[in-house]
Amino acid sequence: MTTDLLTAEDVQLMQDLARRVTATHPELVNSDASYGELAWNWGKDHAAQGHTWRRRLWCADGDLVAWGWAQLPRQVRRRDGSVRDVTDAYLAYQVHPGHAALVDEVIDWFDGVAPGVDRTVLPGAADEFGLRRWAAHGYETDQDALGDWTQLNERDLTDVAEPVLPAGFRFRTADEAGPEAAVRAHVDAWPASTYSLEAYEGVRATPAYRGDLHVLVEAPDATMACSTIMWLDEVNRSVEFEPVGTHPRHRRQGLARAVLLHGMRLARAAGAVHATVACLGADEHPAARELYYGVGFRLLSRDVPLLKPAARA
């Protein structure tokens, strides 16, 4: 197919491929190519950044078997009105393992659609064939990102402990709390985020979103102190937590642990038997990893940051 702007319909096709790869080779699902991550990234950013997104799709026998989503250089407006210039191009992509050779076409397409700038990509460490092909095309370890690689963690939902909240705190869903509270919970946890009501409306509009699986913790003063969104892949009976965040003033009270356990119980009631969550994996970022390990998650896979410098682009 020809290169074009990424659409909501494309994202649904990508999610279907994510489900098929997850069913047989979950370790080969790339960082930004999972069922939930696709919905989250598309939903929150397409209104503001979608004009800089390019995509190409590869199909075989009527099914999508590979895709590339190039995020080209752009300006990102922060909540305080300041503007950040993104000068490199980033590729999210997925290739079905049964069509692994298509990775060369994905690479050639990315090189062609983003010429003359630094190009970055995050293939999975388990994809030995893909890593060899990226290297053959001139991609090398991104030294600036060595401390920022991501790992995906998993656990089953057969035995989930009872969540415990501090006195006066309570669980809410986004359906109950409303859009403004859901957005405030996110931006309080990540002050540098560009998240907004418009971005949240984009998230809510994705078919994968469920307000009853968007969980918040309300503090006694009505602050939304912690939150997470769960993305339920009903085909694989798996739920993905993305994002998970806590208000700085309410950290170290066990809220994130409680919201994860509560979320897993809700997901199990909705039919899930398996859960995943991603975090930074390097030694200098232990907090999230220790949180997830503390509620039973263990490493499934990790990504490998690669770069092709503009000088060789």
Unreliable runs: none
How many angstroms does the end-to-end distance come to? 24 Å
Overall strand count: 16
What's the shape?
globular
Helix/strand order: EHHEEEEEHEHEEEHHHEEEHEHEE
Broad structural category: alpha+beta
Helicity, as a percent range = 25-40%
Major β-sheet strand ordering: 1-2-3-6-7-16-8
- Radius of gyration, in Å, reads 19 Å
Q: How would a textbook summarize the main sheet? A: 7 strands, mixed
Characterise this structure.
With 313 residues, the chain is an alpha+beta fold. 32% of the residues lie in helices and 28% in strands. It has nine helices and 16 strands. It has helices spanning 8-24, 35-49, 103-113, 128-136, 174-177, 179-189, 197-204, 255-269, 286-294; strands at 4-5, 53-60, 63-71, 74-77, 83-86, 89-95, 119-121, 140-141, 150-156, 170-173, 214-218, 224-233, 238-246, 274-280, 298-302, 306-308. The strands form three sheets. Strands 1-2-3-6-7-16-8 form a seven-stranded mixed sheet, with helices on both faces. A seven-stranded mixed sheet has the order 10-11-12-13-14-9-15. The longest helix has 17 residues, at 8-24. The radius of gyration is 19 Å and the shape is globular. The model has no long low-confidence stretch (mean pLDDT 95).
